[in-house]
């Protein structure tokens, strides 16, 4: 029995060491000739990582050339009419919706409603430039006739979805664009008017009597029948096409990229299609914007300050654990080992649940560690009064139950705060939630098992 208990303690300590090494150091494998960490990176907020500062300003129509005389003046007047306060506010809401849809972790957006100028601060990451590009894109899909008259536009779009299709040549990505009832009827008429002309076989014997004028007339009719519509997004041609049959379901498909069998190309096409899907679903901007500022703003917290804080905090934790060992001897040592494992598991939870670390979030981490430490001290004090081994386990359970019940209101409050839209509060509450949840589970499984098995030796 004594050997069995020792093996349990050794096994648990080894597990804690492995988890701690993985959490604090990382889990690396060789990939493409270099070592890559399999663990997700911490997501830092703007106050820790810095941010991208972008300003969008309404395009001033008076800056455009007027070489085309009256025709362009009329066009310019029409453009000026859309530069209204109502449209400025609508544009800001659309841009904000796009930022949310594109999963920007943290951002702020402000607008001068009189001029339409929009200022966006967003957290910096590898996709920031792409996000900016699509955030202020007009987002207008049009179907035009050969004379560039708009037959159908994105105002009639009901929903856009990214779809997959597998063929012998690989996988292709396409956008399925579904129109509303009005757009469905318009698309139906377009598909009938611009249908692929039927091929008519010519009979030379019967056509001998055709005059030259009749042949020219037939040629003109065929040319008229073969006219195509052009599908554009923000003025850029996606494709020119005719329709083989009448479209009755109100949907068209646009291919993104080509067929591919490589995972890298496929992911690239999926990302591109995803961005286009989001801007079309968010609606077209009622006014045209341009980027007038785009720069990176460094965080006030430097790397040296960050490292110094980690060192100071690490030293404080070490002093606290040494205190446990000195005061509670063997139980203190085992609790200290379990406490290090607790920190490792909490940090892994923060990584894998994509919690955004802000200054408030780091404060939440400190509070969570302090709560767990208090939890451990309370239990150690409670079991120190035990006179025998059976009483020790009973007292541990009593102490655990009492302090766990006391933490339940805090746990519930953290869940409520998680539902807030304010990132700083969300970051704090999310870390508190995981800290308390792991405190309860970790201590009843690991800390208790270590202490009880050490006493039963």
Q: Approximately how much beta-strand content do the residues carry? A: 15-25%
Query: SSE string, helix = H, strand = E?
Result: HEEEHEHHEEHEEEEHHEEEHEHEHHH
What is the residue-mean pLDDT, rounded to a whole number? 85
Terminal residue distance = 8 Å
Oligomeric organization of the protein chains? single chain
Strand order of the largest sheet: 5-6-4-14
Low-confidence stretches: 64-77
**What would you say the CATH architecture of the largest domain is?**
2-Layer Sandwich
Summarize the biggest pleated sheet.
4 strands, antiparallel
Structure description:
With 457 residues, the protein is an alpha+beta fold. The chain folds into 2 domains: 2-43 and 302-455, Multidrug efflux transporter AcrB transmembrane domain (Multidrug efflux transporter AcrB transmembrane fold), CATH 1.20.1640; 51-198 and 221-297, Gyrase A, domain 2 (2-Layer Sandwich). Helix content is 55%, strand content 20%. It contains 12 helices and 15 strands. It has helices spanning 2-25, 46-49, 70-82, 85-101, 128-135, 181-193, 212-225, 263-282, 303-352, 359-383, 389-418, 423-455, and strands at 28-31, 34-37, 43-44, 51-58, 107-111, 118-123, 141-144, 150-153, 157-167, 170-179, 229-233, 236-241, 251-260, 289-297, 356-357. A 4-stranded antiparallel sheet has the order 5-6-4-14. β11 and β12 form a beta hairpin. α10 packs antiparallel against α11. The termini are close together. Residues 64-77 have low confidence and may be disordered.
């Amino acid at each position: 029995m004594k050997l069995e208990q020792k093996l349990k303690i050794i096994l648990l300590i080894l597990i804690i060491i492995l988890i701690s090494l993985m959490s604090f150091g990382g889990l690396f494998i060789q990939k493409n000739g270099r070592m890559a960490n399999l663990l997700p990176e911490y997501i830092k907020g703007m106050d820790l990582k810095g941010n991208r500062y972008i300003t969008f300003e309404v395009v001033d129509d008076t800056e455009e050339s007027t070489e085309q005389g009256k025709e362009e003046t009329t066009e310019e007047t029409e453009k000026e009419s859309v530069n209204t306060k109502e449209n400025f506010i609508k544009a800001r809401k659309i841009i904000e919706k796009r930022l949310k849809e594109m999963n920007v972790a943290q951002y702020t957006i402000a607008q001068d409603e009189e001029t339409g100028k929009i200022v966006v601060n967003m957290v910096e990451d590898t996709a920031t430039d792409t996000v900016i590009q699509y955030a202020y894109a007009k987002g207008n899909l049009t179907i035009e006739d050969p004379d560039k008259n708009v037959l159908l536009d994105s105002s009639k779009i009901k929903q856009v979805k990214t779809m997959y299709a597998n063929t012998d040549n690989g996988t292709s990505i396409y956008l399925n664009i579904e129109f509303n009832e009005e757009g469905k009827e318009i698309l139906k008429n377009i598909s009938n008017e611009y249908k692929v002309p039927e091929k008519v076989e010519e009979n030379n014997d019967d056509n001998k009597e055709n005059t030259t004028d009749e042949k020219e007339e037939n040629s003109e009719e065929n040319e008229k029948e073969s006219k195509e519509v052009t599908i554009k997004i923000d003025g850029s041609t996606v494709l020119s096409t005719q329709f083989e049959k009448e479209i009755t379901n109100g949907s068209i498909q646009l291919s993104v990229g080509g067929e591919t069998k490589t995972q890298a190309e496929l992911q690239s096409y999926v990302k591109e299609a995803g961005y286009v899907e989001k801007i079309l679903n968010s609606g077209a901007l009622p006014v045209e914007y341009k980027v007038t500022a785009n720069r990176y703003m460094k965080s006030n917290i430097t790397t040296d300050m960050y490292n110094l804080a980690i060192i100071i905090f690490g030293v404080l934790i070490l002093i606290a654990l040494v205190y446990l060992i000195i005061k509670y001897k063997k139980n203190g040592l085992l609790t200290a080992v379990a406490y290090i494992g607790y920190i490792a598991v909490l940090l892994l939870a923060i990584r894998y649940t994509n919690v955004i670390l802000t200054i408030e979030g780091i404060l939440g981490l400190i509070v969570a560690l302090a709560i767990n430490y208090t939890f451990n001290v309370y239990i150690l004090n409670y079991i120190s009064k035990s006179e025998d081994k059976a009483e020790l386990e009973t007292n541990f359970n009593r102490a655990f139950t009492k302090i766990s019940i006391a933490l339940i209101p805090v746990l519930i409050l953290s869940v409520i705060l998680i539902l807030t839209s304010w990132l700083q509060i969300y970051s704090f509450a999310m870390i508190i939630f995981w800290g308390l949840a792991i405190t309860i589970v970790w201590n009843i499984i690991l800390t208790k098992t270590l202490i009880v098995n050490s006493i039963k030796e």
